[in-house]
Design goal:
alpha+beta; eight-stranded mixed β-sheet
Length: 189
C-alpha cells in the first residue's frame, strides 16, 4: 500500500492554530458540516494544492535496515516541493463606527502580521516542515446579508511544504546469466 505523501490533518491543524491564535476568533473550515458560529468568527479553506514546484520528484534517497521484514530492508523515498493556498476570511456583524478596530480587516491584519513573527513560525510551521511562501493582500468583501451589514475580509496565503512517498524493496541476491552465443551459463551473486 502506498504511503500518504503529506499528513493533511497535521497541515490543516498547523494553519488553523496559527489563524486562531493570531485573531483570537473561533475559526472553522468552510467545508466542514457544522453550523455557522456566532459573530465574530473566521473560516479557512484550502483553495489550491498541492501545486508541485517541479514535474520531477527527487529520487534516490534510500535507507537500509536489516531488521525490517524480508523484502522490505531497503526504504526508497521520493519527494518534491509543493505549495498549498489557503483562503482565510473573517466575519464581523454590525460595525460600530466609534470602534474602527473591530472590523474584519483588523482581524485579518493581525493574522497577516503574525505570519512574520519568529515565534509563530517556530510554534506553528517549522516543526511540520511548512514555510510561508506568499501572503496576499487583505481584501474587503463586506456584504449585506439578511438586511444586516457584515464586515468580511479575505486573505489568501500560500504555504510551501514537501510531498514525500516511500516504498520498501529488497535486493537481488543471485542472478543467473545464460547466453548461448556468448557461451555463458553462470550464477552471479
Amino acid at each position: 500500500m502506498l504511503s500518504e505523501p503529506i499528513d493533511m490533518e497535521r497541515f490543516q491543524n498547523a494553519v488553523h492554530a496559527w489563524f486562531t491564535k493570531a485573531t483570537d476568533l473561533e475559526t472553522v473550515w468552510r467545508d466542514q458540516g457544522a453550523p455557522q458560529p456566532p459573530y465574530p468568527f473566521a473560516s479557512l479553506k484550502i483553495i489550491s494544492g498541492p501545486d508541485l514546484a517541479s514535474p520531477l520528484w527527487e529520487q534516490g534517497r534510500w535507507n537500509y535496515d536489516a531488521h525490517r521484514a524480508v523484502g522490505k530492508q531497503i526504504e526508497l523515498e521520493n519527494g518534491v516541493p509543493c505549495s498549498f493556498s489557503v483562503s482565510c476570511q473573517a466575519y464581523v456583524d454590525q460595525i460600530d463606527a466609534r470602534n474602527p478596530g473591530r472590523d474584519a480587516r483588523s482581524y485579518m491584519t493581525k493574522a497577516q502580521a503574525a505570519l512574520q513573527l519568529e515565534t509563530y513560525q517556530v510554534e506553528f510551521f517549522r516543526p511540520f516542515n511548512i514555510a510561508l511562501w506568499l501572503s496576499g493582500p487583505v481584501q474587503d468583501i463586506s456584504a449585506l446579508i439578511d438586511d444586516d451589514f457584515v464586515s468580511r475580509s479575505n486573505m489568501d496565503v500560500t504555504f510551501g511544504t514537501t510531498l514525500n512517498v516511500k516504498e520498501y524493496i529488497t535486493w537481488i541476491e543471485k542472478v543467473e546469466g545464460k547466453s548461448v552465443s556468448l557461451g555463458i551459463d553462470q550464477l552471479f551473486g
